[in-house]
Amino acid sequence: MFIRVKTRANNLRSIQICENQRKADKVVQRIVRHVGQAETDEEEKRLRELAQSIIVRLKEQAQPVLPVFNAEDIYGNKSDQEVKALLVDLTHQREEQRVIEGIGHVFGKLFDELKFDTVFQDDIEKVNKETGEIETVVIKKKEEKTNILKACVMARIANPSSKHRTAALLEEDYAIKIPLDRIYRMMDSLYEKQDIVKDIVCISTLSLFKESVDVLFFDVTTLYFESFEKDDLRNNGFSKDCKFKETQVVLALVTTTEGLPISYEVFPGNLFEGNSLITMIGELKKRFDVKNIMLIADRAMFNEENLKHMENEKINYIVAAKLKSLPQTQKKEIFEMGHYEFTNVEETAHWIKELNYKERRIIVSYNKDRANKDSKDRIRLVERLMKKITDKKCNVKDLITNNGTKKYLTVIGKTNVELNSTKIAEDAKWDGLHGVITNMKEKKANEMLAKYKGLWCI
Question: Is the model's pTM score more than 0.85?
Answer without folding.
Answer: no
